What does this fold into?
Amino acid sequence: MIPRFAPGVRLHEDKARARWIVMAPERMFIPDDIALEVLRLVDGIRDEAAIVALLAAKFDAPVEEIGADVGAMLEDLIAKGALAHG
It folds into this structure.
């Protein structure tokens, strides 16, 4: 699965409030620090395995553990309409 932002959805840095937000039509999400690490890697090119590998290397964590967490997070964001997959 290659996650990408759904049409009309984007990750945006709110510099005035010093935080990142996911902006979608008629709604917004404020990702926590972990979700933000994942969302910064969502570019419509990297597949889920590549995102997991990058995060596992960055945080020196087991791929299986990172993979389970990332997979659940991506599925939740897809269900909410913030992400789509190709």
Summary: The first helix runs from residue 33 to 39. The first strand starts at residue 3 and ends at 5. The domain at 3-85 is CATH 1.10.10.1150 (Arc Repressor Mutant, subunit A).
